[in-house]
């Protein structure tokens, strides 16, 4: 009996020793290991707050195609359109800040919508990770509808209120610039909001709207197919990809529109993971295969550090706030958003 009791005690002591040693080993490993050292250990979701097929969606998917090589794990895109890009943005802002849910979006989702409406997130709830691309926009129409910007303006003056335009993300920068153009041209048009560029272009081709400001891959793709015609580029000079298309400035309008898109994460993401993402994405941007594909669709690449990107977001937040508050176009769009 005594022998049996001693055996039980020995076994219990050995079990407890093994348990404590295991915990100690795990704790030591956890304490000594830098957070994010093994990141990513599974696939990463990139949320895009617009419908599939637009410029931002195209860039996010192109980026995702190159992540396996750099990060060792696949990144995949999920579209969450709606609410002028605020639905998908809010989902990411409220998600766990572990680096496995990211947001790919243009500046409007982050810095503009808060000036128009109460949102379930602030722009500071999202951590700027990597600046990805910049694109210029052009005014497109259905091929054969108007041949020049002057034709469109003339029609607008002869048919007050009959023109209709499309905008992606009501209240976004393209929306503001469209209203600015209408004011400079002295014409009126009613606006219709869409959840993605592809939907707006489909509406143009179907005759439901007359024009829209779009950028990136869709602008070039539909122009090359002959379905649409770009009447003016909102760029400081003509694009090499559209050398025959004049700028707004060449035609007497002070309209310039370039929009950046970047990668964001929920506030609170560990610094080592955020740094790793920035470095990896910048590596992809410098990859000739990625750069050639992106630039062929009218995108401009300019890798930035996290600090530089964060400063840009803050600067644009302040700059666009003044546009909304102090310009006639800003006041008009703000009034439209309240209806």
From TrEMBL:
Reading the lineage from the top rank, the first entry is Bacteria
Q: Which residues cross the membrane?
A: none
CDD domains, per database record: PBP2_Bug_TTT
Q: Which InterPro entries match?
A: BUG, Bug_dom1
**Which keywords does this chain's UniProt record carry?**
Receptor, Signal
Q: Which residues form the signal peptide?
A: 1-29
The family line of this record is: Belongs to the UPF0065 (bug) family.
Q: This chain belongs to which protein, by name? A: Tripartite-type tricarboxylate transporter, receptor component TctC
């Amino acid at each position: 009996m005594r022998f049996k009791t001693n055996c039980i005690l020995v076994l219990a002591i050995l079990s407890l020793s093994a348990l404590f040693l295991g915990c100690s080993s795990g704790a030591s490993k956890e304490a000594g290991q830098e957070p994010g050292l093994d990141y990513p250990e599974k696939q990463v979701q990139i949320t895009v707050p617009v419908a599939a097929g637009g410029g931002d969606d195209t860039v996010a998917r192109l980026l995702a195609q190159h992540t396996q090589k750099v990060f060792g794990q696949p990144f995949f895109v999920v579209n969450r359109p709606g609410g002028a890009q605020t639905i998908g943005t809010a989902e990411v802002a409220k998600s766990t800040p572990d680096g496995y849910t990211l947001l790919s979006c243009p500046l409007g989702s982050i810095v503009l919508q808060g000036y128009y409406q109460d949102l379930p997130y602030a722009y500071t709830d999202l951590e700027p990770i990597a600046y990805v691309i910049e694109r210029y926009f052009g005014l497109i129409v259905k091929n054969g509808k108007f041949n020049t910007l002057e034709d469109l303006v003339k029609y607008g003056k002869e048919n007050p209120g009959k023109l209709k335009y499309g905008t992606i993300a009501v209240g976004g920068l393209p929306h503001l610039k469209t209203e600015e153009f209408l004011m400079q041209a002295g014409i009126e048009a009613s606006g219709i909001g869409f959840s993605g560029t592809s939907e707006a272009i489909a509406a143009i081709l179907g005759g439901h709207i007359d024009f829209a400001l779009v950028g990136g891959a869709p602008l070039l793709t539909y122009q090359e197919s002959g379905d649409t015609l770009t009447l003016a580029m909102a760029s400081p000079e003509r694009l090499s990809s559209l050398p025959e298309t004049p700028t707004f400035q060449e035609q007497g309008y002070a309209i310039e529109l370039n929009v950046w898109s970047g990668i964001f994460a929920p506030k609170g993401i560990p610094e080592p993971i955020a740094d790793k993402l920035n470095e990896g994405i910048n590596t992809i941007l410098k990859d000739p295969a990625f750069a050639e594909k992106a630039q062929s669709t009218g995108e401009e690449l300019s890798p930035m550090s996290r600090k530089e990107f964060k400063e840009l977001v803050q600067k644009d937040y302040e700059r666009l706030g003044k546009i909304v508050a102090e310009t006639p176009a800003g006041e008009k769009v703000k009034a439209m958003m309240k209806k």
